[in-house]
Structures are given as structure tokens and as C-alpha cells.
Design goal:
The complex is a heterodimer of chains A (289) and B (252). By secondary structure, chain A is mostly helical. Chain A has a single domain, classed as Orthogonal Bundle (ABC transporter involved in vitamin B12 uptake, BtuC). Chain A has 14 helices and no strands. The longest helix of chain A has 30 residues. Chain A starts with a helix and ends in an 8-residue tail after the last helix. By secondary structure, chain B is α/β, with parallel strands linked by helices. Helix content of chain B is 33%, strand content 23%. Chain B is globular, with a radius of gyration of 19 Å. The chains are: A mainly alpha (289), B alpha/beta (252). At the A-B interface, helix 8 and helix 9 of A face loops of B.
Amino acid sequence: MLHEVFIAPFLDYEFMRRALVGALALAISGSPLGVFLILRRMSLAGDALSHAVLPGAALGYLACGLSLPAMTFGGLAAGLAVAVASSAAARWTALREDASLAAFYLVSLALGVALVSLKGSNVDLLHVLFGSVLALDDATLIFLAAIASFTLAALALAYRALALDTLDPLFARRASRLGEWIPFAFLALVVLNLVAGFHALGTLMAVGIIMLPAASARLWTRDLTAALPLAAAIGAASSYLGLVLSFRFGLAAGPVIILVAGGAYFFSLVFGRTGGIIRLRRPERHLEG
Amino acid sequence: MGSASIRLENVTLGYERRPAVHHLSGVVEPGAALAVCGPNGAGKSTLLKGLAGLLAPIGGRICWNALSPRDIAYLPQSAEIDHAFPIDVLDFVAMGAMRRIGLFGRVGRNERARVAAAIASVGLEGFETRQIGTLSGGQMQRALFARLLVEDCPVILLDEPFGAIDARTIDDLIKIIARWREEGRTVVAVLHELDLARRAFPQTLLLAREPIFWGATREALSEARLAEASRMVEAFDRDAEECQRDEAPHAA
């Protein structure tokens, strides 16, 4: 029985194995980024950027149809353009980052929807918005895995720089010539993961696998070095469970993955060891000194 | 060290054409300990931002000579530090080493020793593994001073370093400033409490948007000069005309 529910779908169907690999890659690289997004108080920036990816992907689709390289390149270019433009606007104009990001992504989203409506049916729009984790081909899988590997390597290399820039941006900027570029590089990583995510989960759902496990992890530990792998683990577990449930009950896979991650988040809100409701309401007895 | 001075040439600093520091000239000599005093809104913090290179003058010129921005440590009044960030005191103080090892370098044995010595100097031994979010205001200020010690810069700019801090902590931190002076570092501090300026800073710049006096602290903080400074009108004149004074860098 258990075997039938939890293991058999992946043994019997190749598309389920592909979906699992793709979703795991996304979760493991995206969730740690989410932890930093939360620490930088940019939780909504991921959302904004994911909308910004849309017009580029739409342009790629307009030019070449449902083609992986065209849509990827378009999404990447549009996402990076918005990320760079809004960081630059925040740095060199009177507007703060959240305002400039909101402005740029709204324009970008409107442009994207307008472009998609120029050609193509609603089915195509659904594909772009919600992805197709059950129809990942070889090229897409390799692409997802490559981005995940690159992200993890970049995070490992720039971990300290990113943490310090998050903690005290003015100091990081003054202490090193490279400090100025940390926020740009970080947003670029987020865009990369969103572009990877939109093939599998769609532009709207891709943010979910970045933010939800990260928010959950922050409720269980104060230690950053523990929060990063914990977020990745929660993301991976949600991906697996989401696929199992969607297969069992015939639901769309992408949204169910996000729903499971959402369930983990609500559980953490209540029971989280460092930030959950129960711990804050009923603190442990105080210490001697 | 002769070239490590900061020269202000007829400097006007401000926001949206409004001067916050108006036509200031002078030299911060290497090894000087300069207090910047004056009423609220006198442009003290603005001047420090200018000296740190964070705010470009809207008139005149600031010459750092041989100093690069990386030689100048700056402690802002309310640092943009996220106190909820999960980092302990040891790692926080070790940030100061970034100027030498860069963003990616290793914190080697020398740097570790330096960090430990800095933590001991500010009296935070035993706090190494405490999260910065759990520190009191005074303890946080000690941690920030420890980070400045690790930074090891020839010029140190402090904006109101003793706001809301108890006497014991102030005594300890003033000892550190005295040590910096002995080591020949330049220290410029915005101070609200004039007694602290008299105690630890031989030179004072009394500022009330216009420079009132720049020289020996006792003279700068005389009754007459303080009275003059307090007459500064804080509100901007809405119908202010364009300033007609000479903007040439060396006119003063």
C-alpha cells in the first residue's frame, strides 16, 4: 500500500521521475535564496521579479513558439533588466528599492500579458503562468540541474559577502570594492532560479518554492547556517510529497507542490521552535542568569 | 602621514540646494582629534557624511589627498544594521577584517588574534557567542567600537558615539579613542555633550550651519561662541535667494 502510493508512481512512469528530479533541483537551489530574500526584507521582490520574467518569455514565445532556449533567454534578459534597473534606480534616485521594483515589474507584467495576447491561445498562457512539471524534456532537465548547481556553487562562494551585505550594507560597500555589486549579483541569482522555475512551475508558482520553505525554516532556527540546508530540505520534501499527492488525486502537480510547502509553513507558524505561536505564547521557564 | 590630511576648501554640503554646512574651510590634520559640536540641525552629521565620501559637496571641494575611501572608518549615528540578523558578536567584530581580506578571503590566525584582542579591549569577553540582537545599547556600541578596532583605519569618523550610553561605557570607549590618538590616528567625532569634547578632544569645530569656530576646544566652547551658535535659525528660509558668495575652492 505504502509502496504503491509513495514509490510506485516514480518506478512506473518516466514523466514522474523527471518531474521529481526537476522539482528537487529547483527546491534545493531556490529555498536557500529565499532565506536571504527574507533576511533582506525583500520577500515580495521575488514575486515582483517573477512577473518581470514574463514579457521576456513571451517575446521568446512570439519569436520561436514553445522553444526552451528562446523563452529562457527572453525570460532571463527581461528579469535581469528589471533587477538591474530597479537596483540602479534605488541606488541613484530618490526612490527606494521596493517602489522602483514595483514600478518596473508592473510595466513588465503588462507588457508580457499584452505580448502573449498578440499571438497564441489561453492554453499557452497557462503554460507560461503555471508551468508543466509533468512534461520536462531532457534539455529542460539539464537546464534546471545546471542552474541549481551554479546557484549552490555561487552561494557557497559568496555566502559571507552576501550575509555581511544583508547585515550592514553601508559597511560592506565601504569595506570592499566588490561590495557595491553584491545586491546585483544576488538578484541575478534569484532571476536565474525564477527562469528555471517557470519551466516547471510557471512564473507564478516558481516564487512559492523559493519563499515558503525559507519562511518555514526561519521559524525553526535562528542560526543562518542551519536555516539554509533546512529550507532546502523542506523544499525538497514538499516537492516529493506534492508530486505523490498530485498523482494520487489527479491534481495539477505544480500547485500541489506549492500547497504542500504552504502546509509546512502553516505547521511551522504554529509549532516552529524559535518563532512559532506556541513558543512565543508559552516561553520556557527563565534561567538562573 | 603628512599627506593623510583631509582638506576642506570652501565646502558647502546639503540637500536639494539647501546648505546644511555652509562655506566651511579647514584642514583635518593627520593625528588630530576633532570634536564637531553645535545645535541640532547644525550640519554635524552632514559634515561627517561628506568627510566619509558618502555625500558629494554642492559647493567647494573636499581633498582626501593620499587617503582612499577604504582608509576611512565611519560609524553612522544610527547604523543601518539589522539587529535581528542572526550573527554572533565574534563574527560581527570579525567583519572589520574585510578591509584587508576582501569579501572572499580567509580569516587567518592573525585576524583571529586581532578580533580577540579587540573584543577584550572593549570589555566584551564572554559575549563572543551572543547574538547581536540580544545586546543592550551600550554593549552594541562596544561591539561597534571593537569592529572599528579591527578595521585599523588611519581615519575614524564617529557620529554621536555616546548617545544614550551610561557613564561606565563612555569611560571605556573614551579610553579607546585616547589610544587611537596615541597611535597617531585621526579621530573626528560629532558630540552632543560638550563635556566629552572638553575631556577627550583638543580641537573642536563649532558648527551652526555656518562655521562659528575651528580651533582649541576651550576657545571653541566659550560662553560667547556657544551663544552665537545657538542663535542659528533652524528652519529654512522658504524664499532664500541664490547664495552669492564666492564658490571658488580656495576662497574662504
